[in-house]
Amino acid sequence: MSNPELSNLLHETRRFDPPAELAEHANLKADAYAEAKEDRLAFWAKQAERITWAEPFTEVLDWSNPPFSKWYVGGKLNAAYNCLDRHVEAGLGDRVAYHFEAENGDRRDITYAELLAEVCQAANGLTELGVKTGDRVAIYMPMIPETVVAMLACARIGAPHTVIFAGFSAQSIEDRVKDCGVEVVITADGANRRGKPSALKPTVDEAVAKCPTVRKVVVVKRTGQDVAWNDDLDVWWSDVVDHQSTEHTCEFFDAEHPLYIMYSSGTTGKPKGVLHTTGGYMVGVSYTHWAVFDLKPDTDVFWTAADIGWVTGHSYIVYGPLANATTSVFYEGTPDTPHQGRWWEIVAKYKVNILYCAPTAIRTFMKWGREIPEKFDLSSLRLIGSVGEPINPEAYMWYREVIGGNRCPVVDTWWQTENGMILISPLPGVTSGKPGSAMTPLPGVTAAVYDESGKPVEPGGAGYLVVTEPWPAMLRTLWGDDDRFKETYWARFPGVYFSGDGAKLDEDGDFWLLGRVDDVMNVSGHRMSTTEIESALVSHPMVAEAAVVGAADATTGQSIEAFVILRESAKGGGDDLVAELRNHVAKEIGAIAKPRSIMVVPDLPKTRSGKIMRRLLKDVAENREPGDSTTLADSSVMDLIQENLSKQSTDEG
Ligand code: WTA
Fold first, then answer.
1. What percent of the chain has pLDDT over 90?
2. How confident is the prediction for the chain on average, in pLDDT?
3. Quick one: pLDDT band at residue 572, thresholds 50, 70, 90?
4. CA gap 146, 125 in Å, rounded
């Protein structure tokens, strides 16, 4: 593993002990590690008591047919009941579930009783539309309360949802809808973004025109902008939902009933539909939310500053916090609208105690300067978390000092869409944190770092991050593709889950994440596949060939850099062409996939067997002298590329 930061990491000596007060009252104490080690399944049986089961399970884990797991066998439950009804029944109906705050200052406190009533209405509405248990529903929405209501209504009637991040293109919606045979799409007319309404429905219209399985499109009125209307397909959310009863008796489903599908980028081909089921997932997110954030539901205000369209939003805005009867902040908007202190204003306003966000956001705030957060009262914070990409020690220290006032432990949490729940993280009342390390697998989780040959490395070594035993919230398969599930995660090291991440163990045996070892990039905490973007570029008539690499970027972690060979007919296209190609990628995948730069090259570096050597392109993109190119079929290619680039200006924007 050649990571330039590696040797620095080895020398990190700073340690931050848990604050005494937090340690004393911590939800999970040090003995949990030993307890889980002694009998892992008994430990997971105990965590399952956090959930209300309509029928008890008879077996914790059925691993008789690996890698297909069944957790809490025979148990029956309803995810929405666990998030709402049981809290209302316990007298917590008046507790605020969400402080919803919109970009434009609109706000609404939604109590558990109100949320339950709205979810019941939506469940009745979806049922009236003919949505049945097992039917798939796609949700393409802004960050508004109806998005949570829609997810929970689906869960309540046992219709797995697939939430599609609202930045994705019509093509991406179409791919997902077709892959899992969606029948109903829930969307909105538009979203508010940076002070302006931006349309959502036209993108859905374009997608569903090509998706014969879609019977209905339910539209929430959010911005009030004009929308095209298809009477056969479109219905207003208010017409479906508002007249419904606020009561709905829920059915209890098998623990393995599908809860949702979340598409995630992989190394090859189209995004894969990661399937999560009900029982194990609910136990996993409830346990980790309680343990990692030391959540005290009666007093804490919790804020995950992420989008619901990603797994972090599913597990730590919706299912985990609601299962734990938490009061959360729910924010629609960007960190700099209307001003760069927006997040800190929100922390001060709602007296947020726990903040969870991505390093890319932290690095952006660092760039804007500490004087901005310093204008706000952040003294309510008691714990701060990080997720989605490696947090470099500088960002960790800034976060700890400037946001956490040197008193809040930082929990750097490692996990993935496929994991469903946090797997590696400090325990805030137990672990002495080290800047830049995700520290150790949580009690109940067994992870290791393997070398090439599948042997665990000793402390001090580096290699591939694996999870050696099943965990409750693990993905069950890839929707409709068991073979790809096996190949992607279980083939590299037979019998164990391979994450696709590189990691190292320091001398104490603590984990340091080193980023992906495959062709997946991490841009602002979002997973992007190089091959997917290459396919999008090649689908443009002017492009003959394309190669995409992720280059190191101080703010976004990585940036997308593309190299293209043009077809003869397109030569001489210039800046317009580059702009057109960037827009083409936005149209094919979504604006988040736009390459930062597109360099037109005469040829690409390839091995004799025709494989593109991305490593050399990465050197170019990161302004390094290209490394060893002796295995190239044509060794003059790199000179040609360098020569060509010095003539070209790149398109920023
Ligand atoms: C990366 C997001 C380092 C990793 C929850 C993983 C991290 C991918 C961390 C999953 C972390 C996530 N430190 N890297 N604390 N957390 N990653 O599926 O490369 O969007 O494989 O899930 O993000 O991204 P995903």
1. 81
2. 93
3. low
4. 13
Q: What is the DSSP letter of 480?
A: T
The answer to whether the pTM exceeds 0.90 is yes
- What is the Å distance from ligand 1's center to 533 Cα? 20
pLDDT per residue as tens digits for the range 639-648: 888 877 766 6
Angstrom distance (rounded) from CA 108 to CA 92:
18
Q: Is the CB of 415 under 6 A from ligand 1?
A: yes
DSSP code per residue over 362-378? HHHHHHH-TTTGGGS--
Does the C-beta of 425 come closer than 6 Å to ligand 1? no
pLDDT of residue 223: 93
Q: Please list the alpha-helical segments (H only) found in 351-428.
A: 359-368, 393-398
What number of H helices and E strands is found in the chain? 22, 30
Residue 557: left (phi > 0), alpha (psi -120 to 50), or beta?
left
In whole angstroms, give the CA distance from residue 403 to residue 329. Answer: 17
The residue nearest atom 5 of ligand 1, judged by CA position, is 416
Q: Are 237 and 221 in contact (CB under 8 A)?
A: yes
* 445 close to ligand 1 (CB < 6 Angstrom): no
What residue owns the CA closest to ligand 1's atom 13?
390
Name 48's Cβ contacts closer than 8 Å, sequence gap at least 6. Answer: 57, 60, 72, 75, 279, 283, 472
Q: Is the CB of 499 under 6 A from ligand 1?
A: yes
Give the C-alpha distances (Å, rounded to integers) separating 45 from 26, 59, 322, 438. Answer: 21, 9, 21, 26
Q: 281-311 burial string, b = 16+ CB within 10 Å, else e?
A: bbbbbbbbbbbbbbbbbeebbbbbbbbbbbb
Q: Which atom of ligand 1 is nearest to the CA of 438?
A: 15
Q: Predicted confidence band at 268 (pLDDT cuts at 50, 70, 90)?
A: low
pLDDT in tens, 96-107: 999 999 988 889
Check residue 235 and give its pLDDT. 98
Please tell me the distance between residue 116's alpha carbon and the centre of ligand 1 in angstroms.
32
